[in-house]
């Protein structure tokens, strides 16, 4: 079987896109897998966008709490904070020197982020190299990610190939992306890709009152209440459909097309569905958020295991390059 590895940035609280695009598919993959998996919180990555240390700690806890709340089996998983294994920073430097500059300059995610964000720093630019180090340090076979990360995985393979080829070795293992096709890209409240950095996300862990506000922020058009509406162009319907079963989706489609059914109704149903479907996960999330020491202990155990695996590879890379 294959070694599964994936990470989520601690640049915000995990949202519905992270949950459906990354957490749930990864947990399913881990369940079906015999081999130990690697799940980490990409807190180094979050520095590209956020400089607030206190907030980063809070978000790191929230990402860890979300994985645990959705049932990550830590007996079968090495669960760790990226920054607690700084070997990855050293490997990033080595890999940078095998990474062609134009490859980074052409990255979709960099182009996209550099257009939207005020702070376009070099970390944002070299981000795919750090991501490659995350994967190559632990010799991962399979990397479950959302579709938006596919190009980063291709870069990781290219960087590993360049290293292996130039150094005449097969030390770095080429990983494969595992994209959950039915999930694709989850839209945000504004219809664009849901992302922590675009402030358009649905946070299913919010207390009810705030969740209601969050759901009410989903952008809809101004079709009057009485008139029939097109479900296929509506963000509320799209998000609802991701969580609802087939009968519920058919019913809501009928409601939209029948008229006298407003976007407010649809939002209310979406909210009820979240509360019902994720009742247990919401409770577990609150528990972990108020027991940070417990989460810290689980992560520390993973970090000790990660160190062993990572150091072994790093030492071989150092030897190849004449640093050891
Ligand atoms: P964000 O864009 O919110 O900062 P991350 O980059 O930390 O999210 O992504 C963590 C994981 O969640 C990745 O595997 C990514 O592909 C997945 N993911 C993020 N946003 C979405 C989305 N809108 N739809 C599907 N998957 C997503
Ligand atoms: N770049 C990923 C994202 O933004 C997060 C991430 C960092 C990651 N390192 C990784 C995902 C390694 C998979 C493997 O979604």
Task: Give a short summary of the structure.
The chain is mainly alpha-helical and about 325 residues long. It has two domains: about 5-185 and about 290-320, Rossmann fold (3-Layer(aba) Sandwich), CATH 3.40.50.620; about 210-275, Tyrosyl-Transfer RNA Synthetase (Orthogonal Bundle), CATH 1.10.240. It has helices at about 15-30, 45, 55-70, 85-95, 100-105, 110-115, 120-135, 150-165, 210-215, 235-245, 245-260, 265-275, 280-290, 290-320; strands at about 5-10, 35-40, 75-80, 140-145, 175-180.
Describe this structure in words.
The chain contains 14 helices and five strands. The chain has 324 residues and is mainly α. The strands form two sheets. Strands 1-2-3 form a three-stranded parallel β-sheet. The protein has two domains: 5-185 and 292-321, 3-Layer(aba) Sandwich (Rossmann fold), CATH 3.40.50.620; 208-277, Tyrosyl-Transfer RNA Synthetase (Orthogonal Bundle). Helix 8 links the parallel strand 4 and strand 5. It has helices at residues 16-31, 43-46, 53-69, 87-96, 101-105, 108-116, 122-137, 150-167, 208-216, 235-243, 246-258, 263-277, 279-289, 292-321; strands at 5-9, 37-42, 77-81, 142-145, 176-179. Adenosine-5'-diphosphate is lined by residues 8-9, 11, 17-18, 21-22, 145-146, 148-149, 183, 185-186, 193-197. The site of adenosine-5'-diphosphate has 19 residues, from strand 1 and helix 1.
């Amino acid at each position: 079987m294959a070694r599964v590895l994936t990470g989520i940035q601690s640049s915000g609280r995990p949202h519905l896109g992270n949950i459906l695009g990354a957490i749930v598919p990864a947990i399913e993959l881990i369940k079906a897998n015999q081999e130990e998996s690697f799940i980490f919180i990409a807190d180094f990555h979050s520095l590209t966008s956020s400089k607030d240390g206190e907030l980063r700690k809070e978000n790191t806890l929230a990402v860890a709490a979300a994985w645990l709340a959705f049932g990550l089996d830590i007996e079968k998983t090495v669960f760790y904070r990226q920054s607690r294994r700084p070997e990855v920073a050293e490997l990033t430097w080595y890999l940078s020197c095998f990474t062609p500059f134009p490859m980074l300059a052409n990255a979709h995610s960099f182009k996209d982020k550099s257009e939207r964000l005020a702070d376009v720093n070099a970390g944002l630019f070299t981000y795919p190299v750090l991501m490659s180090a995350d994967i190559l340090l632990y010799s991962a076979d399979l990397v479950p990610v959302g579709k938006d990360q596919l190009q980063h995985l291709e870069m990781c393979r290219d960087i590993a190939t360049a290293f292996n080829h130039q150094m005449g070795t097969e030390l770095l293992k080429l990983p494969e992306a595992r994209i959950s096709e039915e999930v694709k890209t989850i839209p945000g409240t504004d219809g664009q890709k849901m992302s922590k950095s675009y402030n358009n996300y649905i946070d299913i862990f919010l207390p009810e009152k705030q969740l209601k506000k969050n759901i009410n922020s989903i952008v809809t058009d101004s079709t009057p209440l009485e008139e029939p509406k097109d479900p296929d162009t509506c963000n509320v319907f799209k998000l609802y459909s991701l969580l609802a079963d087939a009968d519920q989706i058919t019913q809501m489609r009928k409601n939209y097309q029948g008229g006298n059914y407003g976007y407010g109704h649809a939002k209310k149903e979406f909210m009820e569905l979240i509360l019902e479907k994720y009742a247990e996960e919401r409770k577990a999330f609150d528990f972990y958020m108020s027991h940070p020491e417990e989460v810290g202990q689980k992560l520390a155990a993973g970090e000790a295991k990660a160190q062993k695996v990572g150091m072994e590879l790093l030492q071989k890379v150092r030897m190849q390059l004449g640093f050891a």
